[in-house]
Amino acid sequence: MLFVLIGVSAHPIWIGLIFSYFFGFKWHLTPIAGYADFFNAPPGEPAGAWPWFSHLILPWCTFALLFAALYVRMIRANVMETMNEDYVRTARAKGASEQRVLGVHVLRNALLPVVTMLGMDIGVALGGAVFTETVYNLPGLGRIAILAIGSYDLAVVQGVVVFATLAIIFFNLIVDLLYAWIDPRIRLT
Asked: Are the beta carbons of 146 and 130 closer than 8 angstroms?
């Protein structure tokens, strides 16, 4: 529960700075900031799969910690609530194995609110990426948007906003399609 509490409460900038300090500066396990290009690195810069991966470990962990905590908490609450439903007790009474009860009856019904939350978190994820890119000095849409806002470049800001809007619409479409797959009572017509 401590992991969940920290993930829900902490800001991505604070998490990023703590990770950079301990994993990068103190223990020298990963690079502190920056980016290593996978294919086309400038001369003298690291290139290849391992430098690219090692430069992105901390940003990935920072980003994942924020959302993993929320989803663990939500899934746990939904599973505990679903375990007390009548159809779960009926499935157990009919002799279904515990694995089948959990997989077919409990998880499938507990995932609907989680999928809804996933669709709503796409915009939050894009906002969290701005902070993560800033802390780790990564090139990305968040950094482009911040630089464009600072230099009053309206066309770039509009482009980033339109792209983010289209990404949110696309992922919400995927979430709507997942509803029909998870819950057979929902039909796409």
From this structure: yes
Domains of the chain, by residue range, sit at 2-182
Q: How many CB atoms lie within 10 A of CB 5?
A: 11
Tokens 């994993």 belong to residue: 23
Q: What is the pLDDT along the chain (189 residues), one digit of tens a residue?
A: 777 788 878 888 999 999 999 999 999 999 998 888 888 878 888 888 999 999 999 999 998 888 888 888 899 999 999 999 999 999 999 999 999 999 888 988 888 888 888 888 888 888 888 889 989 999 999 889 999 999 999 999 999 999 999 999 999 999 988 888 887 777 766
**Does the domain made of 2-182 have the CATH classification 3.90.930.12?**
no
Residue 110 tokens, joined: 């507990």
- Determine the Cα–Cα distance for residues 32 and 89; give it in Å rounded to an integer: 51
Question: Whole-model pTM?
Answer: 0.78
Burial of residue 106, with CB atoms counted within 10 A of its CB: 0-12 exposed, 13-18 middle, 19 or more buried: buried
Write down the H helix ranges in 1-107. 2-9, 12-19, 49-82, 86-93, 98-100
